[in-house]
Amino acid sequence: MIRQQKLTPSFTFALVAGTTLTFLAVDLTLHDNVREIFKEGHTIELMSAVLPIATALLWFAAGADDRQGRQWHLPVILLLMALREMDMDKRLTSEGILQLRLYSGPSPLVEKLAGLAIVALILICGWRLLRITVPRMLAGLRAGRAASWLSLLAGISIVVAKTLDGADRKLAGFGITLDPALGVAFGRVEEALELAAMVMLLQALVYFLRDQARRQASALRSTSATRSLQGRAPSKTSDSGTHAASSASSAAAG
Prior knowledge:
76% of the residues lie in helices and 0% in strands. The chain has 10 helices and no strands. The N and C termini lie far apart (68 Å).
């Protein structure tokens, strides 16, 4: 298990920022156009896929769930998000797993069954997220915990990003034509928000691990102090025996 006390939020953020800046420097050096860094396989999308995988692996390595497995849906959601970012939902099937035509069209039965299984997993994870994780996050917000606030901001960023995704296509359905330059800007903001959300989720986990380590250390100190006090306290049996011996000795001396 990772030693949580050495995994600080500042170190993690510096590592992520340094890695991202390194990839950006390589992208900007090899390409003349800034738009390249937002394309598939380049810095923004690459980091948006790598970070949730790294967060899920850290969750397992650090034993964030106290080995009880009650919140197993969190790393699963992170892995699903990474796969979605890599467009695996479209690459592994003839139609997108989240597309209705996969199930209503002439797609192979195996693809339909696999798609339904993944959709069922997504629904189960979503239900567990609302049932188990959200109440804990709300309690953390009231307590002012950084992990809960970062999780909330990450969720808001993801919702906004998904709203901006394909904004020109969505608005076209209402008869609104979006300026091409604005459409490109919306697309870049969407990618940037998704990356920011992934960074915040990683930081939220690190803050959670730090708080968890502090609680465990506090509980250990409390237990040790209690045992120490119990060890120094004289027992009633011992006190009675000492008093009896003292009385006998006095009687003999008299």
